[in-house]
């Protein structure tokens, strides 16, 4: 069930929420719309769902134009951040709701509900009310309700945003497994880079209503197309190309800024060729790795990530003099800007 978005735009007065977006989402894929607040990702999802109408452009779902179809006619399953469950209905009744309003046979409805209770790992909880469930369980009920009507496409708007960190992480793993079982084309909105990288087959990075880049998690991280993508996906040091950090290092055509991932910063305790002197301002223990905040002589601050093994080998302490250089760096043509 491909989704094709053809030059779709949506304005609110003078604000361009979605600006001529061109995008194809492949059938059966799990795709993340990733971007900061105001990037247009939720608006784009609502346009696909039929909750908003585009000002221009067209949308196809499963080879049928859906631009002006009603929400019901699109056969979309939609899951909101805050569950939107009916508090006065049991788990079983919540899941059955969509089937009942479609006048499905009672036997079919009961069978489908039991099937979904098992699928979302809530078997035996069908007679409970939402207030008797944890946040993670309520979100699984919301997903089961969306899947009950066998939608062509499943859309999720910040589905784990209201949950604590551990529950979010558990549900990411669960969603990935669920998708492997049901194979329904799934699009979810998130501003959490780690969530997008962990769950999705493909990531659509959005900024200011436009698509900055589409690719696999590895492509987005390793081959960012723009400064915005590189700065938004994972931690990065952004330094002027004139910084001492890059002395004796080749940087193509001396762009104004150069980007270096913290794990690509080489730290040594003895002077090395092409390494710049720096002082350790702060050491942050992250468990399996250590982040070092380093001050260069020109005042620039560089963050480095070291493995626990490398940190112990160097025996680093605050205020220690060290020597740093980039293992690899990336620059963009001057026409790009963050």
Q: The biggest beta sheet, please? A: 6 strands, mixed
Radius of gyration: 24 Å
* Distance between the first and last residues' Cα: 34 Å
Mean pLDDT: 90
Give the percentage of residues in beta strands: 25-35%
Q: Work out the helicity level.
A: 25-40%
**Overall spatial form:** globular
Counted by DSSP, the helix tally is: 10
Structural class: alpha+beta
Q: How many strand segments?
A: 18
Strand order of the largest sheet: 6-7-8-3-9-10
Order of helices and strands: EEEHEEHEHHHEHEHEEHHEEEEEEHEE
Low-confidence stretches: none
Describe the structure in your own words:
The longest helix is centred in the middle third of the chain and has 18 residues, at 165-182. This protein has 338 residues and is of the alpha+beta class. α3 crosses α4, α3 runs parallel beside α5 (135-148) and α4 crosses α5. The chain has helices at 41-49, 71-74, 91-101, 106-119, 135-148, 165-182, 193-199, 217-222, 227-232, 308-314, and strands at residues 3-12, 15-25, 30-34, 56-61, 64-65, 76-79, 153-157, 185-190, 202-207, 210-215, 237-240, 257-260, 265-268, 276-285, 289-296, 301-307, 321-326, 330-331. It is globular. The model has no long low-confidence stretch (mean pLDDT 90). It is built from ten helices and 18 strands.
């Amino acid at each position: 069930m491909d989704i094709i978005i053809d030059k779709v735009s949506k304005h609110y007065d003078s604000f361009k929420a979605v600006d001529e977006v061109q995008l194809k989402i492949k059938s059966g894929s799990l795709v993340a719309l990733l971007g900061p607040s105001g990037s247009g990702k939720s608006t784009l999802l609502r346009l696909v769902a039929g909750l908003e109408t585009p000002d221009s452009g067209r949308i196809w779902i499963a080879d049928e134009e859906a631009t002006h179809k009603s929400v019901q006619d699109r056969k979309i399953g939609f899951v909101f951040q805050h569950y939107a469950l009916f508090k006065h209905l049991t788990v079983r009744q919540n899941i059955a709701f969509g089937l009942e309003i479609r006048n499905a046979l009672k036997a079919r409805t009961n069978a489908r509900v039991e099937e979904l209770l098992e699928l979302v790992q809530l078997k035996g909880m069908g007679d409970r009310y939402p207030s008797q469930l944890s946040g993670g369980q309520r979100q699984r009920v919301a997903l089961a309700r969306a899947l009950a009507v066998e939608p062509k496409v499943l859309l999720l708007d910040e589905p784990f945003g209201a949950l604590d960190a551990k529950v979010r992480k558990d549900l990411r793993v669960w969603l990935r497994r669920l998708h492997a079982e049901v194979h329904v084309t799934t699009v979810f909105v998130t501003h959490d880079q780690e969530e997008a990288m962990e769950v999705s087959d493909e990531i659509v990075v959005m900024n200011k209503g436009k698509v900055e880049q589409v690719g696999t998690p590895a492509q987005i991280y390793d081959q960012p197309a723009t400064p915005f993508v590189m700065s938004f996906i994972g931690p990065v040091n952004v330094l002027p190309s004139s910084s001492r950090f890059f002395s004796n290092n080749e940087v193509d055509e001396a762009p104004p800024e150069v980007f270096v991932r913290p794990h690509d910063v080489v730290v040594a305790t003895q002077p090395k060729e092409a390494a710049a002197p720096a002082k350790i301002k702060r050491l942050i223990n992250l468990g399996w790795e250590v982040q070092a905040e380093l001050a260069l002589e020109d005042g620039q601050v560089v963050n480095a990530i070291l493995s626990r093994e490398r940190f112990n080998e160097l025996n680093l302490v605050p205020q220690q003099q060290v020597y740093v250089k980039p293992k690899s760096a990336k620059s963009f043509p001057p026409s790009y800007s963050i």
